[in-house]
Amino acid sequence: MLTNYLMGLCKDKQIPKAQNLFEEMIEKGIVPNVHTFSILIDAMCKKGMVKKAHELFDLMIERGVEPSTITYSALMDGYCFQGRMDEAAEVFHLMAVRGCEPNVINYSILINGYCKAKKLDEAMQIFEDMRSKGLTPNVITYSSIIDGLCKVGRVAAAQELFMEMQARGPSPNDYTYNILLDGLFTNGSYEEAMRLFEKMDNDGLEADIVIYSTVIDNMCKANNLDEAKKLFDSLPSKELKPNTRTFNIMIQGFMKEGLLQESENLLTEMLDKGPTPDNVTYSIMIRGYFQNNEIDKAVQLLNDMADRDFPLNATNTSSVKDLLAADGLEGKFIGLVDKILPKRQSKGSGTTVELDF
């Protein structure tokens, strides 16, 4: 009963209350079991309280409660998230010392941590050790290594692992495809990335909006705007709804080519039908107007944002300031500062929106 209550507190991220309850259990002579310890250790790690979590881990051993693979996973994950790979590895090796056989999840957590830290040699060593123990890597394990290899430019090695997945299993999922696609694009292998995308379609695998957004983004970057627009327009027929990021990509692509009307049409569509524009959307539009010398339109958009009670916060203000400096426009437009960033009253909000320099 108390364990369930503690679990609820942890899910609600009320860690201090969970800690107090745990201490009350100890004071009342209630011996927490491995499940109770693991719940609190996991919650602490997710909150970044890894030192406290490790102290609790040591306490459970002192109390004669043996950690499970779940307990070890929680503590390892906490260290990995903070990039403290030496500590994560120590916890992993402690498993063997205490006779707890690591499972696929334990190995995958450590591998992912090494990959995020760009320590691919260590990740591959753990990967091979895992397989030598007769454990079969899962999609998450492979995806972590493929992502890590792509991040350090070892795309050929990433492709080999991807082909190994296709040959032996487990089959790559959407996430794996997106990782490799992004890796190929980022490392300048545009044609290979497009072949992989086409193969995915030919194999009957349904790409999600994340993958389509990645492809559309890189089509725009490669100056294939017409193809990007065709793919964007085809999304409804595939029963896929463009998200804010997808719209932002197309808006930026049009702005880059000076196609302001097309960008404006997409923004209007977002405002009328959704998805809701975000700070990135407006930053792209404002930057595009500045770069295309459409200062009046930039001013109008700022006013429209205020009319819609869009939060013109410090980020927006800083962005506009940076536009003047980064694009070499400050010399030309410094005399128009008061016009570009007027003090005004947002309609209906009762709040003065002041974008000051």
TrEMBL record:
<dbReference type="InterPro" id="IPR002885">
    <property type="entry name" value="PPR_rpt"/>
</dbReference>
<dbReference type="Pfam" id="PF01535">
    <property type="entry name" value="PPR"/>
</dbReference>
<protein>
    <recommendedName>
        <fullName>Pentatricopeptide repeat-containing protein</fullName>
    </recommendedName>
</protein>
<feature type="repeat" description="PPR">
    <location>
        <begin position="243"/>
        <end position="277"/>
    </location>
</feature>
<feature type="repeat" description="PPR">
    <location>
        <begin position="173"/>
        <end position="207"/>
    </location>
</feature>
<dbReference type="InterPro" id="IPR051222">
    <property type="entry name" value="PPR/CCM1_RNA-binding"/>
</dbReference>
<feature type="repeat" description="PPR">
    <location>
        <begin position="138"/>
        <end position="172"/>
    </location>
</feature>
<feature type="repeat" description="PPR">
    <location>
        <begin position="103"/>
        <end position="137"/>
    </location>
</feature>
<feature type="repeat" description="PPR">
    <location>
        <begin position="68"/>
        <end position="102"/>
    </location>
</feature>
<feature type="repeat" description="PPR">
    <location>
        <begin position="33"/>
        <end position="67"/>
    </location>
</feature>
<dbReference type="Pfam" id="PF12854">
    <property type="entry name" value="PPR_1"/>
</dbReference>
<feature type="repeat" description="PPR">
    <location>
        <begin position="1"/>
        <end position="32"/>
    </location>
</feature>
<keyword id="KW-0677">Repeat</keyword>
<feature type="repeat" description="PPR">
    <location>
        <begin position="208"/>
        <end position="242"/>
    </location>
</feature>
<dbReference type="Pfam" id="PF13041">
    <property type="entry name" value="PPR_2"/>
</dbReference>
<feature type="repeat" description="PPR">
    <location>
        <begin position="278"/>
        <end position="312"/>
    </location>
</feature>
<dbReference type="InterPro" id="IPR011990">
    <property type="entry name" value="TPR-like_helical_dom_sf"/>
</dbReference>
